[in-house]
Amino acid sequence: MGFGEAGFGTRYLESVARRGRFCAGIDPHAGLLTDWGLAVDADGLSRFADICIEALGPVAAVIKPQVAFFEPFGAAGFAVLERVIAGCREQGALVLADAKRGDIGSTMAAYGTAWLDDSSPLCSDAVTISPYLGFESLRPAIDAARAGDRGVFVLARTSNPEGGRVQTALVPDGRIVAQSVVDAAAAENASGAGAVGLVVGATRSHGLDLGALNGPILSPGLGAQGATAADIPEVFAGADVRWVLPASSRGVLAAGPDVAALRAACASARDEVEAALTPLS
Ligand SMILES: O=C(O)c1cc(=O)[nH]c(=O)n1[C@@H]1O[C@H](COP(=O)(O)O)[C@@H](O)[C@H]1O
User: Fold this and answer.
1) What is the mean pLDDT of residues 243-261?
2) SS3 at position 263
3) Backbone phi, then psi, for 213, in 5-degree steps?
4) What pTM does this model have?
5) Domains of the chain and CATH, by start
6) What is the 5 CA–ligand 1 centroid distance (Å)?
7) Phi and psi of 90, rounded to 5°?
8) Does 5 score more than 50 pLDDT?
9) Atom of ligand 1 nearest to the CA of 66
10) Active site includes 64?
11) Average confidence score pLDDT of the chain
12) Pick from 231, 247, 229, 184: which is nearest to 210 by CA?
């Protein structure tokens, strides 16, 4: 199978085999709180979270709370985030904390503890991290992930239009920066556990060679950023599509606050992705 018997890669593949390849984002934008008839305060955030846990927790393979939208509420926001993480995990989803951490190695060790260690109330199944202080600076977070069969998702080629300037710049050996990140992640996964995933946006073709990655590929950009499930096969031509995990936040959340409607929107987005990828699997 190309992956180890234990490790995050195995947990990930089991989850998408059960629930389908789709990551539902929990991004409580102020505008969404208002659209859902909720106050833009910690109580509104808390109600938003409850609805998301109930609607998405039982259906999505992976749920990705965007930490940025909890932070403006301070300690109360973090308390809600802790509940989102625990609640979604209790319902059988893998939780990917979208914190996009990136710092010097000694600080990355603290981030690894915060997001990936059982001792932390924010402990998730995986966390997004940025390699732009140097891939090797991520080592302590990668070690923390491996120690608990958890994962990291390293930004390679992001969905936003501004990313290209740095991510497609050339490194001295002639590869683009994003490919150097892909290759470094693939080398980490050579041990088989699939602990090091990538983030590669669904919004454009990227020319990356992802064939040796042997780990999950989060692909945001469906819905609000304009990508569709039908774009995914072309964007990931040549990749092992077992690992491709398209993601959407606002595109699904727009169906709330009704729990049944929100759950149906998530299931339908998942079904569209599966219909597009299954012929390639
Ligand atoms: O790491 C991410 O999840 C991410 C990477 C990327 O390249 N692009 C991207 O949009 N994201 C996140 O994915 C979510 C996209 O939200 P929607 O555009 O509402 O689907 C946001 O939380 C972004 O921060």
Assistant:
1) 98
2) helix
3) -65, -50
4) 0.97
5) 8-274 (3.20.20.70)
6) 30
7) -60, -30
8) no
9) 22
10) no
11) 96
12) 184
Pocket probe for ligand 1: among 127, 128, 199, 228, the residue whose CB has the most ligand atoms within 8 Å is 199
Mutate which of 23, 81, 225, 253 to test ligand 1's pocket (most atoms within 8 Å of Cβ)?
A: 225
How is residue 150 annotated by DSSP? -
Side-chain-facing half-sphere of 147: CA atoms under 13 Å: 15
Six-digit token pair at 199? 């983030």
Ligand 1 atom nearest 250 alpha carbon: 19
Ligand 1: which residues within 6 Å by Cβ?
A: 25, 27, 64, 66, 98, 128, 158-160, 199, 201, 218, 220, 223-225, 247-251
Catalytic residue among 100, 139, 175, 250: 100
What is the ipTM, given to two decimal places? 0.99
User: By alpha-carbon position, which residue is closest to atom 4 of ligand 1?
Assistant: 220
d(CA 133, CA 119): 26
- Length of the chain counted residue by residue: 281
Residues 6-18 have pLDDT tens digits of 699 999 999 999 9
Q: What is the pLDDT of residues 155-184, one digit of tens each?
A: 999 999 999 999 999 999 999 999 999 999
From CA 66, how far away is CA 221, in angstroms rounded? Answer: 14
Q: What is the pLDDT of residue 4?
A: 41
